[in-house]
Design brief:
The complex is a heterodimer of chains A (about 60) and B (about 425). Chain A has helices spanning about 15-20, 45-55, and strands at about 1-5, 25, 30-35, 60-64. Chain A is α+β, with helices and mostly antiparallel strands and about 60 residues long. Chain B has a single domain (about 20-410), classed as Cytochrome P450 (Cytochrome p450, Orthogonal Bundle). Chain B has a 5-stranded mixed beta sheet with strand order 1-2-10-7-3, with helices on one face. Chain B has a 3-stranded antiparallel beta sheet with strand order 4-14-11. A two-stranded antiparallel sheet of chain B has the order 5-6. The model of chain B has no long low-confidence stretch (mean pLDDT about 95). The chains are: A alpha+beta (about 60), B alpha+beta (about 425). Chains A and B meet through loops of A and helix 17 of B.
């Protein structure tokens, strides 16, 4: 599983970073990006889905 | 000047008044009735003409379209923008607006916002947790050993004022004065214009001008000095820009969060099962806070129509205002399962309490921290409390909705 933050949609709500800091980080302006090329380590799939389900801008996508 | 309409509302679909006490007191019923009557966009001739879209799709479309919907006037008051400019010719017009960047449009907006963003990123805000905890605990210590409290007057209203004053470098002893001004600016939008209101505006103006002058002479380690040193397009910010941004931080940072904390505590006082769940599992507070933000989102923003146009079947005119009720979008059944049910363990929660698009609330990380800590400390110190039914809960008026009186009976304390 891989996650991806579309930086043109992200407005810095920081929900992904709060819910899944293992998968996402934020820059100095508060914009999010995926860690480790977006690869979701085994066991963190639910956290990845939670991040997607809580992004108000629909900026995060998952690829299986 | 256009004719100003006052008096009771006759029909919420065609004559609503978002500044009347009746609106915030009955807000969920009003939206439900409008939607049930097949009215996704309500209108009023009051305030020079305002539209009120109610669905998530409409609110999102407007928030994402700064070309046709300008942010010049984030608060819809009695004066139309062109009339306000006549009264204050020095005020900054589009695309900057009086309180940048909330009142700014692209392309200026992004640059003005970029100056502020680093100060509000999670990595800057998270370390403030201890300070917020101390503020909250001290407010509870100060209540003494009493069984009846007003949690709004004695607790929620103080927390954001003290945090913001510290960030901006304003004396904490003046906190009551800023809160009074914020209440006047935001709570009095439906009020008739009076000498008293004007005098208060002037007092606020003078106070902040002096605050900025003091910081020019004696730089401090705070946001005011930071703004005075900041540059945009290779030049220092204009004094009017610095003034507007500081005014914005005070206005936007205070009664919004005060309202968010208040609505959360009101819910917990009214719902003992939820209260017990959070007392027993404080780790569930952050998710509960998100649900309180969804269900009781405090802030409705506004835009100004930039050109005559048809929008989803209604004819909008240039300079009409459009309210952006994020709280109504958060109760759209197309977007949320069982939106009227407050489920503190809701997993899928794409609420827009902090707005959508380029104007996402810049203080959202701070607001969330204050809400989480304020709820956590309150539940720790008062594990059991309920509404005091002999007293009245009162709600704010205007575009920021939250309880202004929260009479509680304290049943146990720790």
């Amino acid at each position: 599983m891989r996650v991806h933050v579309d930086s043109s949609k992200c407005q810095g709500h920081n929900r992904c970073y709060a819910l899944a800091p293992e998968l996402f980080d934020v820059d100095d302006l508060g914009n999010a990006f995926e860690l480790n090329d977006g690869i979701v380590p085994s066991g963190l799939e639910d956290k990845a889905r939670l991040a997607v389900a809580n992004c108000p801008e629909f900026a995060i996508t998952i690829e299986d | 000047m256009s004719e100003t309409i006052y008096g009771p509302v006759t029909d919420w679909a065609t004559d609503f008044d978002h500044g009347s006490p009746a609106y915030n007191n009955n807000i969920h019923q009003i939206w439900d009735d409008l939607k049930a009557a097949g009215c996704p966009i309500a209108h009023t001739e009051r305030y020079g003409g305002v539209w009120l879209p109610l669905t998530h799709d409409l609110v999102k479309e407007i928030a994402y379209d700064p070309t046709r919907f300008s942010s010049l006037t984030p608060v819809v008051q009695q004066l139309k923008p062109s009339e306000a400019r006549l009264e204050d010719p020095d005020a900054l017009g589009a695309p900057i607006g009086p309180v940048p960047p909330i009142s700014s449009d692209p392309p200026f907006h992004a640059d003005a916002r970029r100056i502020l963003l680093p100060a509000f990123s999670p990595k800057q805000i998270d370390p403030l947790r201890k300070e917020v905890e101390e503020i909250c605990n001290k407010l509870i210590d100060d209540m003494g050993d009493v069984d009846s409290i007003d949690a709004a007057v004695q607790y929620t209203q103080h927390i954001p004022v003290l945090v913001v004053a510290q960030m901006v470098g304003l004396p904490l002893s003046d906190a009551d004065r800023f809160r009074g001004w914020v209440d006047m600016v935001l709570g009095g939008i439906g009020a008739e214009r009076s000498e008293e209101r004007l005098a208060q505006f002037m007092a606020m103006d003078e106070y902040l001008t002096k605050h900025i002058e003091d910081h020019i002479e004696n730089p401090q380690d705070d946001l005011t000095t930071y703004l005075l040193n900041a540059e945009i397009f290779g030049e220092k910010l204009s004094p009017r820009h610095v003034f507007g941004t500081i005014l914005l931080l005070i206005i936007a940072g205070i009664d919004t969060t005060w309202s968010g904390i208040g609505s959360s505590l009101w819910h917990l006082a009214s719902n003992p099962i939820d209260r017990r769940r959070l007392v027993e599992n404080p780790d569930k507070i952050p998710a509960a806070t998100e649900e309180f933000l969804r269900a009781y989102a405090p802030v409705t923003m506004a835009r100004m129509v930039t050109e005559d146009m048809e929008f989803h079947g209604v004819q909008m005119k240039k300079e009409d205002r459009v309210l952006l009720p994020f709280p109504a979008a958060n109760r759209d059944e197309k977007q949320f399962a069982n939106p009227a049910v407050v489920d503190i363990e809701r997993e899928e929660n794409r609420h827009s309490a902090f707005g959508l698009g380029i104007h996402r609330c810049i203080g959202s990380n701070l607001a969330r921290l204050e809400m989480n800590v304020a709820i956590e400390v309150f539940l720790k110190r008062f594990p059991d409390f309920e509404l005091d039914m002999t007293e009245q809960v009162t709600w704010s008026t205007g575009q920021v909705r939250g309880p202004r009186n929260l009479p509680f009976k304290i049943k146990t304390r720790a």
